[in-house]
């Protein structure tokens, strides 16, 4: 009887360990389109207008300063939305038929905390996952939970956190937290 009880207890512990390391699925609301914010550097091209085509940094107030039209709100907008706003402002008295393209030249950094060798702020690289962010931060510590992480991201102006698998794609400005495992 004691052997059967010990076998049952061992099986339950094994199942509990498996259940605790499984990363939950990510809420689709977390998957909003990438929006611009402070720290992004943009390349704005106004076709046929070399004086307006240039690189612009999104400042601390979330704006870019362009010749003729002045400050333009970039924070919270996609590159397509910003392109439409610039086009409309240029059309209202400055350029007859402006054609504007906006692309991100340099993304804002990401942040990584918790059980990594060198937590901190790092430059974002396109195609980055949680796993590559950990590698950039010097790898996991011996006590790190290696199956999933918590990612904080601004969604509609609010910081939202989600538990994601280690292969989850990151965005500029994300804050990754690598948790400590219990055993």
Describe the fold and architecture.
This protein is of the alpha+beta class and 183 residues long. The chain has 2 domains: 41-106, wza like domain (wza like fold), CATH 3.30.1950; 108-183, Outer membrane lipoprotein wza fold like. Helix content is 22%, strand content 29%. The protein has helices spanning 2-21, 79-91, 130-136, and strands spanning 41-46, 54-57, 63-66, 70-73, 100-106, 110-114, 120-122, 148-155, 158-165, 175-178. Strands 7-6-10-8-9 form a 5-stranded mixed β-sheet, with helices on one face. It has a 3-stranded antiparallel β-sheet with strand order 2-1-5, with helices on one face. Strands 3-4 form a two-stranded antiparallel sheet. A hairpin with a 2-residue loop joins strand 8 (148-155) and strand 9 (158-165). The chain starts with a helix and ends in a 5-residue tail after the last strand. Mean pLDDT is 87; it is low at 5-21.
Q: What is the typical, i.e. mean, pLDDT?
A: 87
Query: How large a portion of the residues is in β-strands, by DSSP E?
Result: 25-35%
Query: What is the number of independent domains?
Result: 2
Order of helices and strands: HEEEEHEEEHEEE
Please give the CATH class of the largest domain.
Alpha Beta
- The computed structural class is alpha+beta
* Termini gap: 29 Å
CATH topology type of the largest domain: Outer membrane lipoprotein wza fold like
CATH architectural grouping of the largest domain? Roll
Percentage of helical residues? 10-25%
Whole-number radius of gyration? 23 Å
Strand arrangement in the largest pleated sheet: 7-6-10-8-9
How many beta-strand runs?
10
> What would the principal axes of the Cα set say about the shape?
elongated
Major sheet characteristics = 5 strands, mixed
Count helical runs: 3
